[in-house]
Design goal:
Layout: E1 2-4, H1 42-51, H2 53-57, E2 61-64, E3 68-70, E4 73-77, E5 80-83, E6 90-96, H3 115-131, E7 135-140, E8 144-145, E9 149-151, H4 164-167, E10 180-182, E11 199-201, E12 204-206, H5 234-237, E13 244-245, H6 255-273, E14 277-280, H7 288-302, E15 310-313, H8 320-325, E16 342-343, H9 346-356, H10 367-375, E17 404-405, E18 418-419, H11 423-435, E19 439-440, E20 442-443, E21 452-456, H12 477-481, H13 484-498, H14 501-504, E22 506-512, E23 523-529, E24 536-542, E25 548-549, E26 564-572, E27 583-584, E28 592-593, E29 597-605
Parallel strand pairs: 1-2, 1-20, 2-7, 7-14, 14-15, 15-16, 17-19, 18-21
Antiparallel strand pairs: 3-6, 4-5, 8-13, 9-10, 11-12, 22-23, 23-24, 24-29, 25-28, 26-27, 26-29
Helix pairs in contact: 1-3, 6-7, 9-10, 11-13
Length: 608
């Protein structure tokens, strides 16, 4: 999976950088201010698709930041005023933002200048991706809309956009702010949320009821600065800065109507537009029962095609008990059915970064990473159930198999490669992502080791939301494809095709730094094996700048290693110039890895 911020990949159509009626100050032609639009669009992604860029990288799914029409500017967000370039400030859930669409198709056929035309372009984009064998995952936000209303603090009925208190009001545990009024600022597309009733798009009647365009659908409880860290219910009920929180409580009068509205909208994208899955934002900020109802009703609506759609979510937390909670329905143990198909694995992300995201030649311990991997199949002692739901979804796979494995993203954890992180260490990190269990997810630009040189290790920052292919001083696609990072990711993707255990095999930790020896410092080794243990591969990652070797060890009895040897299949980090020697898999063995490398050993029958 390749996660791309659509506004930051490639400016394929400069004519949409400042759409008609949009405040021109919201676009940065120099592509330096990450708070403003930079010009990336669907056309840029289409050009990359048409050139075979993603196929050459080995990508089989594109995850796009939300494409729906946004509020284009907010007065107060983290760091001051910002734009909705990222897509998470929805204003119209059944329109595509004009910053992303073009006046004509890739082949030159005109689109109408309206919602129908913009949706037609998005559908054509999905069709193009499918023609290249690539699925499309749509990022969706069901927890909140953008800054679509204001709090009329002084009661004058006018949105005083320079006043902080009209964007933000303090959180109320009891009651709500009755001063909320719809915004109406055309140049920022700050308007009442849409749709406000039924629509017809792409020849399909969408039976929406205008639920999102009624103020009583929103909590209107205001905002607390520490809401992201809360776990007492406030994080579920409050606005996030000027983003307006939907009231998802199961006892609310509009609960069923709100659920059904979102089912109707997302079914349109999945069925008519043809997207292949949903990544759901801010899951832990809505009531658990809301997700029960939404996923159940959406799968029922999709019927047999539900098995072909992936629904995974973002729970921004490293605790497996919190992450795994959303693979279970809230009425467990009465129901064992899966809730989300999978979740973004922040647990593995955080522990992998502790191991590898260290400055210069330094590295951390892989012990926490080893523990997080074993937790995927472990029992939660607090309630006696597995952390992650082992029961299969409509496609026959369970949440453990559909975890999304990643090591960087667009939020505060930022790019893996910041000041102090070398290109080679970044390549090592991507190699780890590609060999761990789950669905590996790459963040756009990492295939060129794109660096955020302004950010520091250990700080939260969104500064890594860089333009990848700007119009000036940019690497060409050819240069990117010839880079060591791109070449290694492609080689790993090819190896995943050739060795199925790297895609679906269990993970068996084999070796992590031992206090008793020093020549293994920085090493972590694990096996990927099928259920019968007959087919397996071994991965050894060396975070040190020195050649390392594990201590003598015996492979677990679950691996049928008798009569087999481990043969080097791929070496990452060394450009394959110094392959590690083959190692016998009989008796005790020691696994070797060159400096700053990842070695994949393949178990093959010994030649007699």
């Amino acid at each position: 999976m390749y996660f791309v911020m659509t506004d930051r990949f490639m400016d394929g159509d400069p004519t949409n950088n400042s759409p008609p009626g949009c405040d021109p100050a919201l676009y940065d032609p120099h592509q330096k201010d990450i708070s403003r639009y930079m010009g990336g669009d669907l056309r840029g992604l289409e050009k990359a698709l048409a050139s075979g860029y993603f196929n050459d990288l080995g990508v089989t799914a594109l995850w796009l930041t939300p494409v729906v029409k946004n509020v284009w500017r907010s007065g107060y967000d983290l760091g001051g005023w910002k734009t909705g370039y990222h897509g998470y400030w929805a204003q119209d859930f059944l329109d595509i933002d004009p910053h992303l669409t073009s006046a004509e198709s890739l082949s030159g056929e005109p689109y109408s200048d309206d919602t129908e035309g913009r949706m037609r372009h998005y559908q054509d984009f999905v069709k193009l991706a499918h023609s290249k064998g690539i699925k499309v995952i749509q990022d969706v936000v069901l927890n909140h809309a953008g800054p679509v209303f204001y709090y009329d603090a002084n009661g004058d009925g006018i949105f005083d956009v320079t006043k902080r208190e009209e964007w933000l009001q303090p959180f109320l545990w009891d009651g709500y702010h009755a001063s909320a009024k719809w915004a109406n600022i055309p140049k920022w597309n700050a308007h009442r949320t849409q749709p406000d009733g039924p629509r017809e798009l792409l020849g399909t009647r969408i039976h929406t009821r205008g639920t999102l365009s009624r103020l009583e659908t929103y909590g209107r409880k205001g905002f607390s600065n520490d809401s992201l860290g809360k776990s007492d219910g406030e994080e579920i009920m409050c606005d996030f800065y000027s983003l307006r929180d939907f009231w998802t409580a199961p006892d609310s009068e509009h609960f069923d109507e709100l659920v059904d509205e979102f089912v109707e909208i997302q079914a349109f994208y999945l069925e008519t537009v043809g997207v292949d899955g949903l990544r759901i934002d801010t899951v832990k900020h809505a009531h658990h029962e809301f997700w029960d109802a939404f996923t159940t009703r959406l799968r029922a609506r999709l019927g047999p095609t539900a098995k072909d759609k992936l629904i995974f979510g973002e729970i921004y937390d490293g605790n497996p008990a919190v992450l795994g909670r959303y693979t279970w329905r809230s009425d467990w143990p009465a129901s064992n059915e899966p809730l989300l198909d999978g979740v973004l694995d922040f647990d593995t992300c955080f522990t992998a970064r502790t191991y590898l995201r260290q400055a210069g030649k330094h590295f951390g311990s892989a012990a926490a990473l080893e523990k997080s991997l074993t937790t995927r199949t472990a029992i939660n002692p607090a309630d006696g159930r597995p952390f992650y739901n082992p029961n299969p979804g409509p496609d026959g796979l369970n949440s453990r198999q559909k975890m999304i494995t990643f090591i960087e993203n667009h939020d505060g954890i930022n790019r893996f490669r910041v000041d102090g992180i070398t290109e080679r260490r970044n390549r090592l990190a991507q190699g780890l992502v590609m060999t761990l269990p789950g669905i590996p997810c790459l963040y756009y630009g990492t295939e060129f080791a794109l660096a955020d040189q302004t950010a520091k290790i250990g700080e939260d920052s969104e500064t890594g939301r860089l333009m990848f292919f700007p119009r000036r001083n940019a690497p060409t696609i050819t240069e990117v494809k010839n880079s060591a990072s791109f070449t290694e990711i492609r080689a790993l993707a090819d190896l995943r095709k050739r060795l199925p255990v790297l895609r679906s095999g269990d993970v068996i930790p084999l070796w992590v730094d031992s206090d008793s020896i020093t020549d293994d410092d920085g090493l972590f080794a694990f096996a990927r094996a099928g259920e019968d243990g007959e087919n397996f591969a071994v991965v050894v990652i060396n975070a040190s700048d020195e050649a390392r070797v594990t201590g003598a060890m015996e492979l677990p009895a679950s691996l049928k290693s008798a009569g087999k040897v481990l043969q080097t299949a791929l070496v990452i980090g060394m450009g394959n110039a110094e392959p590690s020697p083959s190692v016998s898999a009989t008796g005790l063995l020691r696994l070797q890895a060159p400096p700053a490398s990842l070695v994949v050993y393949e178990a093959i029958p010994a030649i007699k």
